[in-house]
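# step 3/5: fold
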Amino acid sequence: MFKPLITIAVLLFLSTPLLAGWTEGVAAYKRGDFTLAALEFKEFVDQNPDNANGHFMLGLSLGELNRMEDSL
């Protein structure tokens, strides 16, 4: 009975670093703080280079800052 709960707890604990920057980036983007959003998504992309969503959100944030070359 406790084994599934322990497994879930361990998986959540291990996945937390993978989300570093994502939640903060989304919150900053929603507030319109695109500079902070770009920094957070850059951190996320550095830690998760194969995550397309991170690259997409980084590109959107950079586009909002009129950094078109970087956003592409």
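# step 4/5: annotate
Confidence is low (pLDDT under 50) at residues 10-16.
# step 5/5: archive (pending)
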